[in-house]
């Protein structure tokens, strides 16, 4: 009977001209019809017929709705478009505001489980931070007009400010979000000046006004004191409860200008983001400055000159929604079979082959600040790691990549990152998104060295070289001058913590430049720091001594003369260059002792004793001894089941896989980073 009914159901569908669908999606139709089939005992064939007709007429109306929405996207006039980013200090509520905007405009159903939906990467969910800017197109009705709002949720952490910078090239305005409880923080200042320098309209928005400690008036006054923002222009919202968000939507429409574009001019599509799709290759996210682009168009890259045929275009909702064309002023994606990561160049402009354009806008590429070696656990995993790095750098173009080799770790790469968090996130994404496991060496900055007069070793006399790998540090006798990268840092703190923060800055060789009051409780400090003093642990240290209240941001400030030495590590007499670091001469003894102490903690005891020594120019300055010990994991087992013993030994073997054999010593793969983390 069941068979008969099923057959009838499918025949009915076939009779309604859905043969193709039936044949193609047999399983899914059975699933979709399961509710009908579940009631089959009491259902007549004619009821099934009626239900199936309703089902398909519903599907047809869905299709119609999708087609009319596609048309809406294709025909939206530029005057009805608003392109903006949400920028703010870490945790001031950007992603939560994006959630509310999606809900209030009906792009996403209101549901308490909708939390930071634009933070789609696993690493973002794990860490609760945004690391990747995410664009989304939403419709909003205001009066009798429907507007297309293209919003970009950006990261807040200083290491990802490059994402903010790129996103701003697709915008005419920004929402500068400030937590009404915490007030203006270091990244608020940095983000304000970034948007200001790009001549964007800035909508100041105070968030979290639902919190009982919120002080919207005080924070509005801070904005006035620092940025000359009129307090009456400041909007007050709670991204969590939605309070004030409808008024914010009206302000976006009223105060942010529509993009200035001419759709009759030749196409100029600025690439500001990209990602890699396993089946479709590189997909680029573009802002159309002028012109139009359609599926089937022949386009060229201004950067590489390579030609492509457009396979698909569309908008991000935030999933990909295909359209037939994109027009000037719009933000959307283009898939055109770009095969390699180098082809999808951020800041590149795509134009129509038939209408070449010149003088294209260029986005300055991000400048990596921190460098580290990345090596496979064993050389057989080299191809996997290479592919993973290639794909990930497409999604994270701020990472620079160069081939590298190390005597102990083999063939690998030297990667440049914007900061330590960026490096950790990249490593986590390699593992989570590409299942590629790597050893990452201690991060270092790029030093500038001038080599003495005549030709020395491989180097030319008088030559200036840049060294980011301590293993390549030349002999001190041939160095004439050395300088290190410095940064101008901004710290904002309640005045109670000023004393402790000053001593931390002095300890890190900071030189004070400026101090000013933001209001009667908060102070803004500016310091120049050597970059290598703040890449590891400075931010955490600052947070710890200020109970989380101080915030920190920095920008590149060039190079400054210095006096540095290479601190090398010997394990049982063998130099392990991968563990060496460059330190200021005033800190050599302290750092040498700290490094040896750390290594004793990190390296597991082994069958033999290990001498750990720190040396500078061949002179030993610190030593620790790691005693011999064999961990017998089965020691606690008295007789019993042999499978239990094998299981323990297997677990021990798995643990060993995470180690690297260097100078005959098993070293855990995270040693290289752990040693730099100060106690
Ligand atoms: N009470 C209250 N909490 C809020 C509000 N907006 C955001 N939050 C909370 O603040 C925390 C940070 O919010 P996010 O939206 O992740 O902040 P973000 O600025 O996107 O963070 P990053 O992207 O990491 O810089 C979360 O715990 C939110 O629930 C608000 O209006 N009121």
Automatic annotation (TrEMBL):
How would you describe this protein's topology in the membrane? Peripheral membrane protein
CDD domains documented for this protein: EF4_II (cd03699), EF4_III (cd16260), LepA (cd01890), lepA_C (cd03709)
**Entry superkingdom:** Eukaryota
Record's PROSITE patterns? G_TR_1, G_TR_2
Name one molecular function that GO assigns to this entry.
Answer: GTPase activity
Q: What is this protein called?
A: Translation factor GUF1 homolog, mitochondrial
Task: Please state where this protein is localized.
Answer: Mitochondrion inner membrane
EC number annotated for this UniProt entry: 3.6.5.n1
NCBIfam families per UniProt:
lepA (TIGR01393), small_GTP (TIGR00231)
Cite the source lineage.
Eukaryota, Metazoa, Ecdysozoa, Arthropoda, Hexapoda
